[in-house]
């Protein structure tokens, strides 16, 4: 037996080394370095601040939190405020806080059941029934530290070794490829069709499945992001049906990543859950399909990324599997209570006629309208740039434009050992202080280049951000033409 060694780069798990997460990678480290230099010398760069467009983090870019949920959470954090009438909390805020406190032994500073607070799981079940028209049961609902924790948990449960594969869209959100790598599994990427607005075809699914099998892997599940990240498309009911039939034919678990379901700008959202249950109920088909549906308080119009609240519902899984899920959650004791309650407040907002409804609805509609305007403006502006083509953003928080880079720029990137679109994004950061993510971090068709930017810069800042991108792009293309 070999002697034990201290942990250094050579002894770190190869699975950890294999995992990559582009949205917080080298570019963000460089951005943090620039911020420190600007703090020490405000004239160190030709810009006065760093604008983080690399990640869907709405509050960081100025989005204000919704009043009702934050007031309820404030009372839960400090229950003695409930009796302080001078603070002026509306009666439905106080009633909701008291309702939670009555059902949470020890308050939000205590552990909950590992599956999550029963009162919140009832709220989630009611939300799912209202949204889809089919009942849900709290035994199938698990509250997690954001949807990301649910993804990591279910990937660890499903993938045993390199022979197990998970089908993921290309472009993809790198949480999935990183989670697969950490489990020593295999990625089976299926390509979305950029030429038709990032649609998903049955042929692309079958090609990816067949290639995975030829390479000795065994696909176990398929991830579908709807609305898409980074691509911003919203799938039609017909596309969802085709994906479900493909998954059922090949006995694949469907990961329905629907965390952007309320970020809809030019289409309509229909959940995988509704489509599956419609097929099962009306056509008596796909009765054995397994589905994981995911949602989060981080996205939508709440944007509460830091609260780390999310949920998943398991459909078609037997009790023995749910016991294993519960065990994995129990190892971590429980997800944080503030995030759990935030989920309840997201799925059970003030109802029409309640004192807080009017303000809540005003804040909600204002945010969604603003995001729609920003999405349209960004797409329009990017499409005016030489060599840039950007698909319509129907949902989510991102654009993923393609960019035709000059051969001279490609060779320059290769000479310094980075991907050409990563070189473009690094130059954008160094010259403008704007952080975007190269398409190579999400996956793309060979020979194409992209970058992802959020639509989140505040409207009052958006024109200056777009003007900076435009000026940089023209200079970059001139230098490397």
Write the layout of secondary structure elements.
Blueprint: H1 14-18, H2 26-40, E1 51-52, H3 67-77, H4 91-103, H5 118-132, E2 141-144, H6 146-158, E3 164-170, H7 175-182, E4 186-191, H8 202-214, E5 218-225, H9 237-249, E6 253-257, H10 272-283, E7 291-296, E8 310-315, H11 319-331, H12 337-347, H13 357-382, E9 388-389, E10 398-399, E11 402-403, H14 407-415, H15 420-432, E12 434-435, E13 437-438, E14 451-454, H16 459-480
Parallel strand pairs: 1-12, 3-4, 3-5, 5-6, 6-7
Antiparallel strand pairs: 2-8, 7-8, 9-11, 10-14, 13-14
* Number of separate domains: 2
Helix content: 40-55%
Number of helices: 16
Per CATH, the superfamily of the largest domain is Type I PLP-dependent aspartate aminotransferase-like (Major domain)
**CATH architectural group of the largest domain:** 3-Layer(aba) Sandwich
Strand order of the largest sheet: 2-8-7-6-5-3-4
Q: Which overall shape is indicated by the principal axes computed on the Cα atoms? A: globular
Question: What's the total count of β strands?
Answer: 14
What does the main sheet amount to? 7 strands, mixed
Distance between the termini: 59 Å
Taken in chain order, the helices and strands follow as HHEHHHEHEHEHEHEHEEHHHEEEHHEEEH
CATH class of the largest domain: Alpha Beta
Kindly estimate the percentage of residues that lie in beta strands according to DSSP. 5-15%
| Class of secondary structure makeup | alpha/beta
What's the overall average pLDDT, rounded?
A: 92
Low-confidence stretches: none
Question: From the alpha-carbon coordinates, what is the Rg to the nearest angstrom?
Answer: 23 Å
Could you please say which CATH topology of the largest domain applies here? Aspartate Aminotransferase, domain 2
